[in-house]
Amino acid sequence: MTVTPHHDALLKIMMVMSAADGRQRDHELNVIADLARNLPVFRSVTADDLVEALHAADHLLSETDGIEGLVEETCAVLPQPLRETAYALAVEVAASDLQASEEELRLLEVLRDTMALDPLLTAAIEASARVRYRRDPGATGATGTTGV
């Protein structure tokens, strides 16, 4: 099966989040690949199609000047339930390195506004990520949470 416009949009949102702070970390790219391989929303997409779509999204990011325009264009193809999914995926990528940057937090704000998401829903998604990515308070060097 080929990648549908909504699959493409979800992948672009994750790639945009990964690049929001000006550098794409291998860890974040691995998280995106894991999410794309394991989540039900991507179940009908083959591994080869996912790789191709991720490369296309990465190329688009390198060609784009304005993230906000890309976000608006990308979100426009998503129905409401998948807008919620897109936000959850973006939060997952931002939280995966255990510290959300100012740029990542700003992008989450742009996503919330662009997709007109329910503030209670976005707060719940963010709280869920904080709980999942919380560090062991007894571990050496553990400080705080993700900032998401």
Can you describe this structure?
The chain is mainly α and 148 residues long. The protein has a single domain, classed as Orthogonal Bundle (TerB-like), CATH 1.10.3680.10. It contains 7 helices and no strands. The chain has helices spanning 5-19, 26-38, 47-63, 67-75, 80-95, 102-114, 119-132. Helix 1 packs antiparallel against helix 2 (26-38) and helix 1 (5-19) packs parallel to helix 5 (80-95). The longest helix is centred in the middle third of the chain and has 17 residues, at 47-63. The chain is globular, with a radius of gyration of 15 Å.
Labels describing this entry:
148 residues, mainly alpha, TerB-like, 66% helix
- Please identify the top-level CATH class: Mainly Alpha
Q: How many structural domains does the protein architecture include?
A: 1
Structural class determined from secondary elements: mainly alpha
CATH architecture: Orthogonal Bundle
Outline the low-pLDDT stretches: none
Mean pLDDT across the residues is 84
